[in-house]
Amino acid sequence: MQHYEQATFAGGCFWCMVKPFDKYEGVISVISGYTGGHTVNPTYQQVCQGHTGHTEAVQITFDPTLISYKKLLDIFWQQIDPTDSQGQFADRGESYRPAIFYHNKFQQQQAIASKQALEESKRFTQPINVVIEPATTFYPAEDYHQDYYKKQPEHYNRYYRLSGRANFIANNWQDKPATKSE
Predict the structure, then answer these.
(1) Where are the alpha helices (DSSP H) in the chain?
(2) 92-107 b/e (C-beta count within 10 Å ≥ 16 → b)
(3) Annotated catalytic residue, options 7, 10, 13, 130
(4) What is the pLDDT of residues 158-177, one digit of tens each?
(5) Which of 60, 70, 76 is nearest to 107 (CA)?
(6) What confidence tier does 181 reach under pLDDT thresholds 50, 70, 90?
(7) What pLDDT score does 2 carry?
(8) Domains of the chain, first to last
(9) Where is the Peptide methionine sulphoxide reductase MsrA domain (predicted)?
(10) Phi then psi for 110, rounded to 5 degrees?
(11) How are strands ordered across the β-sheet holding 5-11?
(12) Is 155 in contact with 22 (CB distance < 8 Å)?
């Protein structure tokens, strides 16, 4: 019997957080949605208005025998600016804050160790400002947000470039391991 686990990450616009995980063997699904807030089953419009407390995030279902949580953390770090706690790239505000939402004690320990390794690597001159919090209820986003990079590839690619994410990743992560231990 298969035993799947979940990982939940927030890294700004959830459209840009699906594709990087989607291509790995062992990743069963990547769902865009909202977490960390106080409104039950919020809509995109409500989250964007900033009154629900939710953060745009992705919830990844994965097979830990094929891909480790540590590998998912490494992928996560390389999609974001880990020094910016106020949003990501063109997206500003609480609903775009970067965060790792752990589902169990093991994930919490792995996330803390991963963040510490990134801090110790001195890759960035500013502090690493990604919060590590317990996972709460995750609400899938509306259907039109799911797999957006596949449904609207031209718009997705334009947004990915113009938001500043593509250049940041190219300048800070391309061909560079996330930590000294890799």
Answers:
(1) 15-22, 44-49, 69-77, 105-121, 148-151, 153-162, 165-172
(2) eebbbbbbbbbeeeeb
(3) 13
(4) 999 999 999 999 999 876 55
(5) 70
(6) very low
(7) 79
(8) 5-162 (3.30.1060.10)
(9) 6-157
(10) -65, -40
(11) 131-134, 98-102, 5-11, 55-62, 27-35, 138-140
(12) no
Q: Tokens 């799947």, residue?
A: 4
Residue 93 tokens read as: 């505000």
* Active site annotation includes 16: no
Residue holding tokens 């001195």? 122
pTM: 0.93
Percent of the chain with pLDDT over 90: 91
CA distances from 38 to 29, 57, 120 (A): 25, 15, 35
Which residues have a Cβ under 8 Å from the Cβ of 49 and sit 6 or more positions away? none
Mean pLDDT taken over the chain: 94
Burial code of 60-84, b = ≥16 C-beta within 10 A, e = fewer?
bebeeeebebeebbbbbbbbbbbeb
Residue that wins the pLDDT comparison between 49 and 30 = 30
- List all residues 6 or more positions away from 113 whose beta carbon is below 8 Å from its beta carbon: none
